[in-house]
Amino acid sequence: MAAKKIMIQGTMSNSGKSFLTAALCRIFWQDGYRTAPFKSQNMALNSYITADGLEIGRAQAMQAEAAGIEPAVEMNPILLKPTSHMGSQVIVNGEVAGNWKAMDYYRRKPEFIPVIQKAFARLEEQYEVIVLEGAGSPAEINLRENDIVNMGMAKLADAPVLLVGDIDRGGVFASLYGTVMLLSLQERARIKGLVINKFRGDIKILEPGLLMLEELLKIPVVGVIPMEEIDLDDEDSLSERLVQGKGALQGADCEEKWREIGILDFAVISLPHISNFTDFHVLERIPEVRLRYVKKVGELGNPDLILLPGTKNTMADLTWLREGGLESAILRQVKEEQSMVIGICGGYQMLGEKLSDPEGVEGLAGGVIRGMGLLPAETIFSGQKTRTQIKGRLLEKSRMFAEFSGEAVTGYEIHMGLTRMVGEKMVGENKDSCMWSICLEDGRKDGMERGDGRVFGSYLHGLFDNEKLTEALLQRLTEEKGLKYCPKPKWSVADYKEQQYDKLAKLVRQSLDMKRIYEILMEHQEQKEIKHVETDRMDFSKGN
Hints:
The chain is α/β, with parallel strands linked by helices. Helix content is 35%, strand content 26%. The protein contains 17 helices and 25 strands. Strands 13, 15, 16, 18, 19, 20, 21, 22, 23, 24 and 25 form an eleven-stranded mixed sheet that branches. Strand 24 (445-450) and strand 25 form a beta hairpin. The longest helix is centred in the last third of the chain and has 30 residues, at 514-543.
């Protein structure tokens, strides 16, 4: 029997498609169904490397975790990573196909239909239920002709659709009604239910509007999901986390702990092409940490730790950092020993002395740019992309993570180019010395660290998911402030994620008419099977 399918589409970006897809993946898994997520085309700078070294959208990896399965490239066969306002790096089946202008990709989209169909067919062979996610809105009528991600994908998969709207932004009735009315009659027929997301207040006040909407569209409202704080990996830079201050945990318990040991202030530089900011989500979950995203010099202040994140365009973002004055402010903080600095991936590349792009892989016409000069390193970009999950071990000479020395480290790499140490920098305990502090299992070195332990760079995404390493960092920073460090109770990133997925599933179970959701799954499957039987009979009669 073919897999049962249901698709989540939205009235706009960030309406709750990824959220609802993850919730249904978790619910169907809890109910005993082998379930997988699928998004034919994703545009996001947050990505993930599968166990076999292929790159997919971070949201699909999160949804796979919710479904209790390993992320696989079939779950997201096309990934677009914007490199500018007019172009993206195009990743097909987990591997780079090239940097294309938006119009070139739009014209060539039909070429990817066989790729998408093949990936989806592989999932159908392995799973009982597939939860598909759309992108943006199906009512983007200028993109309808070559659509491969919304109603075009629903047609390819022959999937019923739930349409979700975000009431928190206002105008949810207009957006749901307008979206449906801009679709063709055949497309409207695929929408089997409407969902309102991020509701605050008394639902009794909302109910008259729900009845009127159902009467106008002849489509049932299958649920209203209340606004709830659930901590999931975000898909892209529309995330509210990038709004200054959103990353700070709140509450009485947090305030009490802050009074005990003092606030640790972490500032993430919100680069224009910021990618994989999920690296820092674990830091938001630590009560002693106030994590914020900074775009301007006036927002920087005097943080205990400055974090330079990954970026899809390192050289352009370093230029932005320089022109806006943030580079000078960071260098001043380091010089005066007010802040420590950690750079991850593109942020690590920025910390060096020089960056060279002889092949123009960053979307520029090649060239060389001066780095921040905080590490004796040089990065040379090339067309070959490093994609791998990796394990290693922190060397005992590390000063930034001294209490973690000798422990295992895990993470994953996604980067163009290689970084090497330049000059003869002897290991010591001053700002003029440097060392490698992580030995990877494949023999390579990572984790370039200044001798005084105040500047560190690494290619490893997920670095802070290593609980002991993060604990060592917290201890170093707390003691740096002259405060007594209080060891935290044992904690686990994996356990925390599981709790959030279960919390999400419970919320959506209580909010949606799950009986109706299952009916949509079953009815559509039955109708499809009946249609196939009738077609077979017709073909059989013709054959005679």
